[in-house]
Design a protein that fits this description.
The complex is a heterodimer of chains A (319) and B (145).
Chain A: H1 2-12, H2 17-38, H3 48-58, H4 69-89, H5 105-125, H6 129-163, H7 172-182, H8 192-206, H9 230-255, H10 262-287, H11 293-318
Chain B: H1 3-11, E1 16-21, H2 27-37, E2 49-50, E3 59-63, H3 68-79, E4 86-90, H4 93-96, E5 118-120, H5 127-144
Parallel strand pairs in B: 1-2, 1-3, 3-4, 4-5
The chains are: A mainly alpha (319), B alpha/beta (145).
The complex binds iron/sulfur cluster.
Iron/sulfur cluster is lined by residues 24-25, 27-28, 63-64, 91-93, 98-99, 123-124 of chain B.
Chain lengths: 319, 145
Amino acid sequence: MSTQLGILLAVFLFPGGLFALVLGLSLKGLDRRVAARLQGRIGPPLAQPFFDLVKLSFKRTMVPATASQPVFLGAPLAGVVSMLVAVALVPVSGLYSPDPMLGNLIVLLYLLMVPAIVLMIAGSASTSPYGALGFSREMTLMLAYEAPIVLAVLAVALRTGMGQGGVITFSLVDIIAYQRSHGMFLLDPVMWPALAAFALFFPANLGIIPFDIPEAETEVLEGPLLEYSGPALGLFKVMSALKAVVVLSLGIALFMPLPFDGIWGLIGWLVQLAVLMEIGVTIVRLSMGRMRIDQAFSFFVKWPLLLAVASVVTVTVVA
Amino acid sequence: MNMIPDFKSIATKSPWIYRINAGSCNGCDVEMATTALIPRYDIERLGCQYCGSPRHADIVLISGPLTTKVMDAAMVVFNEIPDPKVTVAVGVCPISGGIFRESYSVKAPIDQYFPVDVNVPGCPPRPQAIIEGVAKAIEIWRERM
Ligand code: SF4
């Protein structure tokens, strides 16, 4: 009974649910504010994403006459739920470790795919030609980045498993514990290819420039999101805020968990999240233009895949 | 309890803007892009954001004298914008037709067809004027919430 209660708390309160939502929206606000400052503008207030959500909840949700209503409105819900569970799956060093009953790294990798799939379903359910374009672009991009990320995660899992005397471990708690006793993977040259592959995966999964191809508002008019309005669109915003938290804290758990406990662990983790958001999102998206889908695809099957394969090979050889 | 009016004034801090070009000469459109995109006239600090889809919009900026060709399309797009919405007519074209007035293919003034709330005259209007128009539109929008 208490494990179930613990899981529910983890999904809805901390670190999932309410906490992750506030955190994710604040990170987005920080991103917009810093982006404006870097361009020499004043920029929106930090709480702008919260304002946007409140505003969206006042608007009307319109369903296109040709769309299938249950799928059209169910898709964003499925995305939010998957991300809620995913946040609760990522442990925070010295603060929170998920119940093993909830799942492991493999479940998390599956859940990370759900937002992309949800966007595809939403795009095709809306029956808009732009939605269909977004669908095909989202799928191409997902196929391109999925292999490198799985291999990069595999490299981390192998390294930890071998370090512990076994073969491979898919428990993020073990990965964090190993790094706390043997030093972060960030400082371990053997893991650098995997880290680089993860860093390249990160903007693609979050859908920011240069990889915001499926939702490019100047080309395909926000693609799958074109037909959404009001609360349903708000759910997509919630989903992407939660996804930012999941992917960032997964990166922290895989490569740079801090060796602190309690309140210092929490502060350190928040600082890490904010710094990663600025380096990985704001600066990247301000300094690049959008790639074409074919460029992005060939980029991903070249460099990140190469790096990820190299990382798995080096880890196996070194161990 | 004063919760609901509070939420409404929070909501008006996030006006999303959509542009309809109803046959404009592009002068006004360039000014609108300038208003939002260059650092000097940062409209994002009002919480504004240009959106690609009419369904995401709260404030719609219409430019141009509404030519006969574009009229039906503009109507369709306008009706796709969910309520509550506010309409801002940018430039002198929507008011009188501007340099195109008395042309056989022009339907201006456009307030016979669209419920215009704010007029921003000028050919093209200055960015400051457009920002003022948007600020006025936000006030009207707050009343409509
Ligand atoms: S008001 Fe002037 S600048 Fe604007 S669309 Fe009309 S003619 Fe062009």
